[in-house]
Design a protein that fits this description.
The chain is of the alpha+beta class and 181 residues long. It has a single domain, classed as Aminopeptidase (3-Layer(aba) Sandwich). Strands 1-2-3-4-5-7-6 form a seven-stranded mixed beta sheet. Helix 1 packs across helix 3 and helix 5 crosses helix 6. The longest helix is centred in the middle third of the chain and has 16 residues. The chain is globular. The two termini are 31 Å apart.
């Protein structure tokens, strides 16, 4: 149902189109010129950033973007989160968007997150948990996290991606499943 592959430079025009969609632009607040997309997403492709940008497809059609990072690779951000919730060694964080507006509000986001979490455990054996901050006003995003099985573990103030938002965030977490004895 869902497939992922690393984002490539030839995906930048599609990504820019998604970032311009009102349902994405509201929360990502990202410049969409070709230069800005290349600047902001090219570092991962070139190996200059320690995170992952993955193009998501559903039934072979591009659907959205997933970002995945080890919080240890971003100590300032980890410290901000640690002021609100416990951030254990091995914690990852994710971000995501559904670019295709026809897929929004149909349960696709929760299914995509659930599958991505499962894939994360397989691909990152050191990962202990996934910690995801979401601006409190982004109800669709935190509801998708809840439907995907993540639980709210904290609330606090973080710098919002979009300056029109207040600093209030909810923090969600899921832990690596343990094997039954």
């Amino acid at each position: 149902m869902f497939d992922w592959r690393p984002l490539r430079e030839e995906d930048f025009p599609l990504l820019a189109e998604w970032l311009r969609q009102p349902h994405v632009a509201r929360w990502w607040n990202h410049e969409t010129s070709a230069e800005a997309v290349a600047r902001d997403f090219g570092g991962v492709i070139r190996g200059e950033e320690p995170s992952e940008d993955l193009l998501v497809s559903r039934y072979g059609r591009p659907l959205g973007l997933f970002q995945r990072s080890r919080l240890a690779d971003y100590p300032g951000y980890r410290a901000e989160l640690a002021a609100i919730v416990e951030v254990p060694d091995g914690a990852l964080t994710i971000d995501y968007l559904i670019g295709d507006p026809r897929q929004v509000g149909r349960g696709v986001g929760a299914a995509m997150i659930r599958r991505f979490v499962e894939r994360t455990w397989a691909e990152h054996p050191y990962a202990t948990c996934i910690v995801v901050p979401v601006v409190a006003a982004n109800t669709a995003s935190w509801r998708a996290l809840e439907k995907a099985g993540l639980r709210r573990v904290g609330e606090g103030d973080l710098e919002p991606d979009n300056p029109v938002d207040g600093p209030a965030h909810y923090v969600y977490r899921t832990d690596r499943p343990t094997e039954a004895p």
